[in-house]
Amino acid sequence: MNTTYSPTLDVDGITGPDSPYPSATVCGDIIYVSGQVSFADDGSVAGIGDVAVQTQCSLERLARILSVFGATLDNVVSCTVYLTDAAHAGVFNQAWVTAFGGHRPSRATVVSGLLDPRLLVEVQAIARVPQGHIPQGGIAPGLQEPK
């Protein structure tokens, strides 16, 4: 197993250069994806007040990060999900099933406040990198070295 630790700060512009954490970190053949929320590419919050839209946007951001490593949502093995209200669970689960289809990674769901009160959901994930897509001796294409 490759045990190279390859921190990253920016995957396709998802995490800005001033962020105190990376969008994803790779260790061996595992991708640890930082929590994704419903920020649009312009930095605005997508789907204010709409759990379904925010879930879809968060999972699309997760998929964009995974794609840099040749992975998809099918490579996700575990997620931690943060919802601001337990009442959102039903709508969240519907959007989750739509995104993941028949794939069912393990998941913990926590009810918690988020740093931006406009956000209703955050998704953190662990995924396995498909064979042949592990960064060897450097950063994967589409990633930027930490500053």
Write the layout of secondary structure elements.
Layout: E1 5-7, E2 10-11, E3 24-27, E4 30-36, H1 51-68, E5 76-83, H2 89-100, E6 106-111, E7 121-128, E8 143-144
Parallel strand pairs: 5-6
Antiparallel strand pairs: 1-3, 2-8, 3-4, 4-7, 5-7
Structural notes for this entry:
The protein has 147 residues and is α+β, with helices and mostly antiparallel strands. It has one domain (5-140): 60s Ribosomal Protein L30, Chain: A (2-Layer Sandwich). The protein is 20% helix and 27% strand. It contains 2 helices and 8 strands; from the N terminus they run ββββαβαβββ. It has helices at residues 51-68, 89-100; strands at residues 5-7, 10-11, 24-27, 30-36, 76-83, 106-111, 121-128, 143-144. The strands form 2 sheets. Strands 1-3-4-7-5-6 form a 6-stranded mixed beta sheet. It has a two-stranded antiparallel ribbon with strand order 2-8. Strand 3 and strand 4 (30-36) form a beta hairpin. Helix 1 (51-68) packs parallel to helix 2. The two termini are 27 Å apart.
Q: Uncertain spans, ≥5 residues at pLDDT below 50?
A: 1-5, 136-140
Strand count: 8
Quickly give the structural class.
alpha+beta
Main beta sheet: strand number and arrangement?
6 strands, mixed
On the 0 to 100 scale, the average pLDDT is 84
Number of domains: 1
**Strand portion:** 25-35%
What is the CATH superfamily label? RutC-like
Compute the CA-based radius of gyration.
Answer: 15 Å
Strand order of the largest sheet: 1-3-4-7-5-6
Question: Helix proportion of residues, in percent?
Answer: 10-25%
Any idea of the CATH class? Alpha Beta
Query: Outline, from the CA principal axes?
Result: globular
